[in-house]
Amino acid sequence: MKLTDKELARLQKLACIKLSPEEQVKLWNQLQNIIAFLDKLQEIKIAKNGWKSIKIENPLRTLEGMKKFEDAKALLQNVKHEKINNSIVIKSVLS
After folding, report:
1. Among the four residues 7, 14, 21, 85, which has the most C-beta atoms within 10 Å?
2. pTM of this structure
3. Residue 25: closest CA among 48, 49, 55, 5
4. What are the Cα distances from residue 31, in Å, to 2, 4, 7?
């Protein structure tokens, strides 16, 4: 599958971005790589024993030094946003 110039222009409009010609070429190449990878996923064959036969490596680094908080109420007291029923209310960034 290959993206057309019209589809790339539509993606820019949907994302509310305006790209220079150089940025468009860079984005185009990145999208082509993503699409090629997704096309490869169609080639995966799952054995009868299912996902157990597929080994997936996790390229994401693990977070270190995270502190576990036992007292959620203490955390909620430090929040500057509105709180309702032990939930933080944040206005949508899309509005």
Report:
1. 7
2. 0.40
3. 5
4. 9, 11, 11
